[in-house]
Amino acid sequence: MKEQAEREVLVMGDSFTTSDKGYVDQLRTRFPSWNLANGGVPGTGVIEASYMAGRRFDERKPDTFVYQIYLGNELFDITRPVHWGELGMFRNLYWW
To answer: Distance between CA atoms of 60 and 56, rounded to whole angstroms?
Structure first.
C-alpha cells in the first residue's frame, strides 16, 4: 500500500459525485494529501459505470475506489425503463 501522501483515489457515481461543492470536494478538503480523481458522470448508473471503470482503473491505478449510488433511483433505473404512463416525458425521452 502506498503512503497516505501518495494515495490515489478514484471516485465514480452520478450527479451527486460530479456536483460542485459535493462530497468529493469535502474529501479533498479533509484529506489534502490524497489525489482524488472525480470520475462521476451525471445520469449514469451501475451499468454505465461498469463500461467506464476498466479504462479509468487502467489510467489512474487507484489504491482506493469509491462508487456512490443513490438508492432513490439507482436500483429502479438499472434497466433504463421507458414507461410513458409512469415516468415523466423528459426521463422517457432521455432513456429512449
So the answer is: 6
Look up the pTM and report it. Answer: 0.71
As given in the structure block, the three cell numbers for residue 5 are 501522501
- Tens-digit pLDDT profile for residues 81-92: 556 676 677 766
Question: Is residue 45 within 8 Å of 85, Cβ to Cβ?
Answer: no
Taking 3-state DSSP, the helix, strand and coil percentages for the chain, each rounded to the nearest 5, stand at 45, 15, 45
Q: What angle do CA 7, 13, 15 make, to 5 degrees?
A: 120
Gyration radius from the chain CA atoms: 16
Instruction: Say whether 6 sits in a helix, a strand or coil.
Output: helix
Closest CA to 68 of 12, 10, 24: 12
Query: What pLDDT is attached to residue 86?
Result: 67
